[in-house]
Amino acid sequence: MTTTTPNTDVREFCDVCDKKTAHAVQIELRVESTKTENQEFSREPYRVSTCADCESTSTMRMNHV
Ligand SMILES: [Zn+2]
């Protein structure tokens, strides 16, 4: 299983294009803390979507609720 394969079937509203466009969506795990200890607890999943039209990227933090 890989998290690097973008899902290109998603259509979302793009602020730059001001319309719904196709987006490539990836989930990235980013380490927020600079501490080496407890690092496995500080990785937060981010949803990164890239507009197929203008290639602008929007990043949204995914909180586990
Ligand atoms: Zn766009």
Shape: elongated
Q: Number of helix segments?
A: 0
Oligomer designation: single chain
Number of domains: 1
String of helices and strands: EEEE
N- to C-terminal distance: 24 Å
Strand count, sense and barrel status of the largest sheet are: 4 strands, antiparallel
Strands of the widest sheet, in order across it, are: 1-2-3-4
pLDDT averaged residue by residue: 83
Q: Helix fraction?
A: under 10%
Low-pLDDT ranges? none
> What small molecules does this complex bind?
zinc ion
Report the radius of gyration as a whole number of Å: 14 Å
What proportion strand? over 45%
Overall SS class: mainly beta
Which key features would you list for this structure?
mainly beta, 0% helix, binds zinc ion, single chain, 65 residues, elongated, 4-stranded antiparallel β-sheet
How would you describe what is shown here?
It is a single chain. The protein is an all-beta fold and 65 residues long. 0% of the residues lie in helices and 54% in strands. A four-stranded antiparallel sheet has the order 1-2-3-4, with no helix packed on it. The model has no long low-confidence stretch (mean pLDDT 83). The site of zinc ion has 8 residues, from loops.
Summarize the structure.
With 65 residues, this protein is an all-beta fold. The protein has strands spanning 7-14, 19-31, 43-51, 57-61.
